[in-house]
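Sequence and structure are no longer studied apart. To make this concrete, we show below a single chain and its fold as tokens.
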Amino acid sequence: MKKIISIAAAALMLLAGTEAYAQIYVGGSAGFANTTVKVGENSASGTTFKILPEIGFQLNDKMAVGAQIGYMNGPGALGSFDPNDIKGLISGIGDAVCGAASSKDVLGYQFGAFRIAPYFRYTFYSNNLIELFADATIAYTNALAKSYDEDDQVWQDRGACGIFEAGIKPGFKVKVSDNFQLVGRLGSLGYQNLKVKDQEMSASRFGLDVDGSNILFGFIYTL
């Protein structure tokens, strides 16, 4: 009981210490990339875009909490997982979820995804112009794959994937004014797990991921 009271008292002291400083900020980030996959003599390319609005609370000059919620479209909607890797994962089942019948069709699929990514941010360097930070993020992405039926001339659902992510995302902020900052996030280091829904199939990876589909630029405005 004494331990619970002590923890509660410490939490109240922390809130009291940050109450006078706490600031709300809003903003958003966007990403754009072109991906090309080659398998033997076959190749295909696809374009990814991401639009991720953001809201957060600056607790003090070092710490903040916030969340990104938004939409992604294209092969980069699968995060660090290559669409062709997912096709290989389920090739034993045939033309099913998040894959295609032949390698040249992998990026012919349309991937759309909804993503929510809460984070805790720690700023480890700052001056009058720039800040360097790291976001500890836990995110979930729900991705849906579609393909175009040439015979019926309609888009058909191919299935869905759920992607869980936990990791560190480094970034920077450039001060434009007292209330307005430009923000960049450059890749991630951590764990991702992809599960094909309604199928007993999953894939996971751990490591550093920095490429064009995992770089975001945006802004935040302090209210």
